[in-house]
Amino acid sequence: MVRFSQVGLRYPDPVRGAAAGERETLRDLSFTLPQGSFTWLTGPSGAGKTSLLRMMQLSLRPTRGEVEVLGMPLSRARRADLPRLRRRIGAVFQEFRLLPYLTAFDNVALPLRLAGRPEAGLRPDVTEMLRWVGLDGREEALPPQLSGGEQQRVAIARAVVTRPSLLLADEPTGNLDAAQARRLMMLLEEMNRLGATVVVATHSRDLIAQHPGHVMALEGGRIVSLDPWPHAAEAGPETAAALLAGEVDDGSALEDGSGDAEEAPGPGDAVEAGRARRGVWPGPRPPEADLG
Ligand SMILES: Nc1ncnc2c1ncn2[C@@H]1O[C@H](COP(=O)(O)OP(=O)(O)OP(=O)(O)O)[C@@H](O)[C@H]1O
């Protein structure tokens, strides 16, 4: 779940610092995205889409108001809480931030290694994920040896391989051809059906028309329209099943201090097993090790 209450964001002036009187980039943002929801974020260039995604990713703090991500109000988060919270967020931004001296395989494996996944267990997941984004055979390539679209697909694989609870994507189809874009959308929708909250920023009306979802439109840093949300349990039987299985985070896990409770295997695994039988990538299994 992502909740913004009266949020404003003002970038510091590079010369004068956080000068009073500077215009806010984001203003008066108040909304709730239920866990398991899919939201298109749209609006003209400069409207603030990337800035909003960066706040959801916890890389930008609001100047005012409250941001709550995956059950954690940031005003109450301790510094030590943030790395664990960030590990539950997958993000693909327009600059891919791949490590140029690591192979495609190692870039995708990195978040699993950081989370303490044993080496023996991660290879099949990373290989499968690279196959899913059409990069089988390119595992050993370094980012500078890959095209822009291939690098974007490595970044997508890296964002998704941990099966994050919150998945953020900024123009994720920008460098992809039509077939790859369709495959990526299948992947995002699949992650969403498995319980992730997904937010995708795009200028593409075609993309939104082909994959109807809830739309948040920004203009000049304000929300100019936001579709109302159905209750999470009405979002679909599989989302509801995942909710009941505790696979989907309702925010309580972090609040009561049992931060990794949602990682425990449960009846939701049956949903995933069904997907695996149908050839749908179900994501790696939850890590055995505690992420904290
Ligand atoms: N680091 C920064 N420092 C100062 N201003 C910034 C910074 N990043 C973005 N801005 C400003 O914030 C505003 C919103 O930018 P943002 O990138 O969030 O918009 P956007 O809707 O994602 O645009 P686009 O569709 O072109 O990617 C712009 O006016 C931009 O100049």
From TrEMBL:
PROSITE patterns in UniProt: ABC_TRANSPORTER_1 (PS00211), ABC_TRANSPORTER_2 (PS50893)
UniProt biased composition (Acidic residues): 247-263
Chain intervals for the UniProt region annotation (Disordered): 246-292
Span of domain ABC transporter: 9-245
Gene Ontology cellular-component annotations: plasma membrane
Record has Transport as a keyword: yes
Family according to the record: Belongs to the ABC transporter superfamily.
Sorted UniProt keywords: ATP-binding, Nucleotide-binding, Transport
Name by which UniProt lists this protein: Cell division ATP-binding protein FtsE
CDD domains: ABC_MJ0796_LolCDE_FtsE
GO molecular function terms listed in the Swiss-Prot or TrEMBL record: ATP binding; ATP hydrolysis activity; transmembrane transporter activity
Keyword Disulfide bond: no
Native organism: Muricoccus nepalensis
Job of this protein: Part of the ABC transporter FtsEX involved in cellular division. Important for assembly or stability of the septal ring.
